[in-house]
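As described in the Methods, two query proteins were run sequentially through the folding procedure within a single session, without resetting any intermediate state between them. The first query and its resulting structure tokens are shown here.
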Amino acid sequence: MRIVSGRLKGRRLIAPKKLPVRPTTDMAKEALFNILNNRIRFQELEVIDLFAGIGSISFEFISRGTQRVTAVDANIDCIKFLTKTSEELDLDLDIIKSDVFEFLEKTTLKADLIFADPPYDLPTEEFEKIENIIRERSLLNEEGVLIIEHSKHTSLQHINTYSEQRKYGNSVFSFFKTQS
């Protein structure tokens, strides 16, 4: 896994094999960030990375100049890896150890972009719950976007705030707008 662009371009993220993660592939991540490059100014964003895992998405945002990135994951080994890597790279990453659903129910943070990469085998209702909590609690700023990464075997097009999706191999990025 590598950081594909920005000031940390080319840096490798080598996570221990024991971590229960399925990092976004470099190809899919590069495609996603090419889409975002044409839509947003990274320096002005506040980002929340849910199910952050090894932080591949978080570190990509920081590399591109995003000032505030919050990474949320429940796994203590992922949190340790995020903390160690942030320290080694001298990065300011807010790291929160929490169940994502509990975090969403309790947080007072708002973001311009929320990225969620839950386990692909999560039931569809749980994917819907992510969008529902974010919408009901108004966790996205005006003009904010939620992006959920999921398997090509999962469809989220029925959700009211759905706006589009992009497929890359087995991965799909579904985009949701702030207002329904």
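Immediately afterward, the second query was submitted; its sequence and tokens are:
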Amino acid sequence: MSVADNLQEVRCEIAEITQRFARPAESVRLLAVSKTKPVEDILAAYAAGQRLFGENYVQEAVDKHQQLSSYADIEWHFIGPIQSNKSRQIAETMAWVHTIDRDKIARRLSEQRPADMPPLNVLIQVNISDEASKSGISLDQLDDMVSLVMALPNLRLRGLMAIPAPQVSEAEQIQVYQPLKQAFQALQQQYPDVDTLSIGMSGDLAAAIASGSTMVRVGTAIFGARNYA
């Protein structure tokens, strides 16, 4: 199947899940995770109406941004870990960053955001399953991180992101998401710009959408298996 066909299948799946949980179909945005995929695949998705693309690796993200600079309506999201020495490249190219979990990185992104660009939309990454192998802050550190991001002039806090440990059942996955959902709703009550909960990938779309996700990150189901050098 083509990228366009795959994309349509994913959109249909999201529509079915939102209907199942009595949510408006437009309440969940689809982020196409294009890491390791060639520009031609991104253009195929673009031709099928996709505009949000997520990248995990800094140099690849910057290269694709440059190659597709004439496509001004592409919204680039960085969804991978950021090293201090790579923060400037992200600040100068991306529209969104999903992986804020350190004071130093947040400060650098704000300082390095070009003056002629709008504030960088950011999500704070929460490690809701307390996995040592994953990035993200704990929920009890959230208030401090929120205060820091809100004080930085060139960042705009839009919400939270998480990658939970997989669970055996949908019900168990929903249970894992509940504390994050509650934290997100509390943030929304405090800050009018907070509107994004980035949770849900191919394996847990239903649980994520049931838990209030407003953005799901899907790669393989759209583009096929990852390409590695």
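The domain at 3-223 is CATH 3.20.20.10 (TIM Barrel). We note this only descriptively and draw no conclusion about the first query from it.
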